Amino acid sequence: MIKSMTGFGRGEHGGKLKHVVVEIKSVNHRYNEVLVKMPRQYNLLEDAVRRYILSRVSRGRIEVFMKVDEAVTKPRDVQVDKELALAYYKALKELAGITETFLDVGVIQLAQLPNVLKVEEEEEDLEIIWQDMLPALSQAADALMSMREKEGEKLHLDLLERLKDIKALHGKLCEKSPKVVILYREKLQSRLKELLDDVKIDENRLTMEVALFADRSSINEELVRMESHLSQFAGILQENNPVGRKLDFLLQELNREINTIGSKANDLEITQYVVEVKSELEKMREQVQNIE
């Protein structure tokens, strides 16, 4: 079943160390592009996030937004740089003596001086953090794929309906095509009689002229190729693999054939069918641009 490239998914998980919220949105794109936005301190895990998304999505522009909060209070230790604190105190005492001022400094003032106190946190284990991230990422990806599949079902039904309409028009073109030469002969013969009145018409010349017209205006080859493309298009719609590029290529080929038919067939009714087919193909092309 075909999938759309448009979708959204959200996942949330409270792990051993982190509470993670992931949102993923995707839009149509010619290739497969993954953009990850996550807290800077976890940038080393960005490639892992990108690889996971690429394993789930074959095509589209995918944006991953990840929010990471503490799930538990991390153990912290405050260290005192005794030597630095003492050095600060001696320097202040010396400065007080030089300036002949009273030294009035307390422990709070000393603690506020640069680097006297240092908060040490336990180094984070990125492997554990990744295990906290993965369930939320997987949940968001599942929701994204579900939406893409639902959108794909709608696109599939719409394309089948339009394909049915084009096949019906193709049938009308096949039915009308042989009649064009017959009508041309009748019109040419009638016109010659009007112009030449009592002069006998040379049947050999008339047959030759009709044959030349038939050769110039023949659309049989285009109709055969068009039927083949339509059949391939219907078959590809049933595949489970990404098919957007294949369908886009076939639509280009169908456009080429119908344009040739329009330029060769010297008939108003055929021209009307051509316009209708081109209109349906354009609508299909817009839909196919959003298929994975």
From TrEMBL:
Residues 2-155 form the Endoribonuclease YicC-like N-terminal domain. Residues 175-292 form the Endoribonuclease YicC-like C-terminal domain. InterPro entries: YicC-like_C (IPR013551), YicC-like_N (IPR013527), YicC/YloC-like (IPR005229). It comes from the Bacteria. Coiled coil: none annotated. Keywords: Endonuclease, Hydrolase, Nuclease. Signal peptide: none annotated. Its cofactor is a divalent metal cation. Pfam families: YicC-like_C, YicC-like_N. GO terms for molecular function: hydrolase activity; RNA endonuclease activity. Belongs to the YicC/YloC family. This is YicC family protein. It comes from Thermanaerosceptrum fracticalcis.
